[in-house]
């Protein structure tokens, strides 16, 4: 395969578009697009299959720009191939409400698979996309029906290579022998602090070899298009290992400042812009110019992609005749809807049922629904037995050659790698055929905060099974006991934080988590046993908050979540018997869902005129939104048996009653307004 | 060197103590202590210098148990050597308020250097301890005065090896050629999910080689004491690389379940406890038995350590005569006190001074004080030019052989590795001679959440320079704009979150951060310029909150932080001129510090009877604690020029005035109680 003038022209067109867009925005990163234009040209034209007219075609190759700051590269490519990204969109790069934001966002731009920019995330997302591909292929492909055989390609830079989340994901990918994953490392020796020699002198390829990857090095990524093509072709042939290609490039190729940090995160100066254009044969006075022959060439490849999809659609239709159930299942999965009636499998409980830890209640849900919701694919960050994330007859997702699972397996062993677990789940979700869940201790969801944030921004339906949710975990002590964690994720937009109080609330949490197509959920679950409550029903709990104990003319409303709900119910008795005080109880398992109910309903739960006290064994921050007074733990916990820890901090009926009485006393003679009443609506 | 009966007896004593303590606690991890008893015996007796009677002796060797769940190993060693850890303390393992909590905590147990347990942290702390040692040695050692020449040893397991934070730290340590760091990898093939073959099949030594480490493998860590000794001796000789020794051991050595996951996180069954004791020649019916000859032998080594310290004290005294200034400086540093009068160097500003971004104001502080506070050592996670963390004549902390800095350099290039930066800072702080600061975008402090939490638990004086603190960063867009971050860290106990509004507030933030010996600080700083305010003084701001604009008979109090303070001050004018409404303004740069003021003072700032509205361009969660109504951003931001983004979300004088009027209207006819008045005191 030889390359000629048109190839070079296309490559330079990409570079000049990146120069123009960043110059016009007076902001952005021209360096990476200019350096990676050659490999992009080769990869997208010689290898990648996709249909710009249907960016959601299942069997498209996936592309992830992990060094997302270089997004003008991706926007230029999307434009040239005919995705719905116009020259005007490129002109509005980094402008309010444009479809070309400062970093790639999956929901803003057609053709962007995942939201990247926070470094390392995209790389790990790519591992997730590759896992999803392998699992989907193993589940649905049949002899003569290679429905799913796409590759996942990712570009990553030095920053991604340094980030722990990508290191973790690379180790996982190596273990899993993901032959469908090809990563291209932009080895340009530059990061924001300048030459990478100041901080990053490791041998990256050797490290990837250690992980079990196939490695190659293309030494002249600026010019050696044949070498790039050969390396990618070779990588595609390696089926039993993920592949990394180290591509040595010149950042900002063509600029006066090429090869320096000066082109990384700042637009080129005006004279440099002109010089670049002149050098590449473009008119220095014109902006956003695309030669027609470049459009023609790129549109030709796009048309080939459209034809491939048309072929695929025929194949899929034929498949539907031979494999009716599979066809229906895959079609349904792609719609995002769950199987009809699945929710009937959710376990329900009576107050007379035994006390059970909510991590076990979560396990019971997974046990009950894994058959009827076959797109559920889950795992744990090496805490399977503690998180109770594995249903009894689960098969591990593993390369079959290891003899401990297969590609169709639905249980993923993430290892002690919380951050990459979360980022991999975001990638699995983005593939479109699976709903991922992953377990760790609630406290260690914090290790994954960078990726949880992207679950929320990206509208990913992923479920964090976060057990050992409080000081109730006991002996492991303060380093493992969350205090700030629920406040953290309650403050995160588009993220549901659930802390169920019993079995029915746990089923409700799963119901909402699974039926909310565009929102991640964190389920905070106990290590210790919880009794089944009187008024807890799935119907009540799916409102996010409800009255668990009603008492007319109550002196106080006690609010709680999770393990504290039964505790405040006990306190009602204590208050009545010892103090003649009448209390009512509200269970508030999910703020976000409760907030979405009608004001009328919310006021029925938290009415005007009654003082209220919230009880939760962690930071009180944020509870002021629902209660007049708050009892919590604004300090770290303690190591000891869980009942001793609760007692130390006075989370007992006596300790709560003391504060309830203080609250009643404080509000005596007033009729406090419900915190639900606000002066104005929040921006959400 | 040969080993005999007494060595084996000591090793088995450690094992049996771990068996007894976990059995008595009915909780804990016997496996790692039983497997790592041999290497501990060799390391502590043949190599480590320390004085149990003074666990804080500067030149002691540092030991970090990164696999902190194995803490009974460390507690047993501390007891045997004569630290203030008694048999009774071991009997109280994992009990409330004991000095033997479920994971090692630096402030609970004499001889525990850093708080570990959350996996990977200890390994990164050890890198920090080694950095601090190298820097302190280069700063204070003189010919004939090898004041500081200790090693840092760390044990780590498979879990730590998998965690991204440790991977990042290992890459940094390799780059920095830390010859004083020796890490011992407990290669026991077991983690909580069982055999590591399910998730962790990489070649760990090869990976460390790729990072630039010296590597060795001792294949029989259960028996080959000579091999262990030889490997450690060899590692000590390698001065230009950190060393890792892969030690293949049998987890739970001696138990019926040895070599399986069954001994990882659960006590041995009673019959197994007895069998272990019988096997090791102990009385199966007795508990917590230490043979006198083991005490004698360990106490002998402890006495040698005490003698070494006595020698060192003489050397240090002599040093004081020859190097008076250095002696005084080092002594002062060890006291934790700053140089007298240092605070006079803090920049102050007049309202007529130019508007400056608070990230630049932070730079001005560092520029002004770095000479008078020589223990300041800082850096950035590859955002030096954006975080403004480097004073103009700073020297990089680098191995001199690279030609780009030296060991006495005080600027650390952390690379794009936020999590390990934070964990390394915790280690630097723990060394005792330095105050670390580190820069990244506020949004990416979340990547480091696991380590920030340990800064707080461990009472570490570390400073997070967190720039680009809001939607005010503009074009980089939602993936980089914090929404939940301040709520997250405000909910974290013992962590000061500062969001200064101008120059004097920035100086105040540094003043409190540097003088708070036991608390980490996060300084949230703007990218955009901020005007210098009228009533802002260091004296006011160090109270955490103060009245920025007073107006008698005000209709409303407007509260804000950082960039929004000048905005609400503009709103005062808008309200007066267009609506005839009188407003007062409160700047609240640090909740935690404000909370520590007297109630009288807090009520003077937020008085009864006036409705209040808080304004901050991020999650409102938690603001209900200080204000009646809240204007914030409970959704993700947008990519665009910062003024356009502010305008989009109505953070303008008009937008704020609208909400202020709604607030006044809502509270009309009431005299709302100040949120400072509460029914009862919180547990802190
Ligand atoms: Ca780079
Ligand atoms: Ca292990």
From TrEMBL, chains A, B:
UniProt lineage: Eukaryota, Fungi, Dikarya, Ascomycota, Pezizomycotina
Q: Which GO terms describe its molecular function?
A: metal ion binding; transketolase activity
Q: How is the cofactor bound?
A: Binds 1 thiamine pyrophosphate per subunit. During the reaction, the substrate forms a covalent intermediate with the cofactor. Binds 1 Mg(2+) ion per subunit. Can also utilize other divalent metal cations, such as Ca(2+), Mn(2+) and Co(2+).
Instruction: Enumerate the InterPro entries for this protein.
Output: THDP-binding, Transketo_C/PFOR_II, Transketolase-like_C_2, Transketolase-like_Pyr-bd, Transketolase_bac-like, Transketolase_BS, Transketolase_CS, Transketolase_fam
Q: Per the similarity annotation, which family is this?
A: Belongs to the transketolase family.
> What reaction does this catalyse?
D-sedoheptulose 7-phosphate + D-glyceraldehyde 3-phosphate = aldehydo-D-ribose 5-phosphate + D-xylulose 5-phosphate
Q: Where is the Transketolase-like pyrimidine-binding domain?
A: 356-532
| UniProt protein name | Transketolase
The record lists the organism as Xylona heveae (strain CBS 132557 / TC161)
EC number(s)?
Answer: 2.2.1.1
Positions of Mg(2+) binding:
158, 188, 190
Q: Which cofactor names does the annotation list?
A: thiamine diphosphate; Mg(2+); Co(2+); Ca(2+)
Q: Per UniProt, where does substrate bind?
A: 29, 264, 359, 386, 468, 476, 480, 527
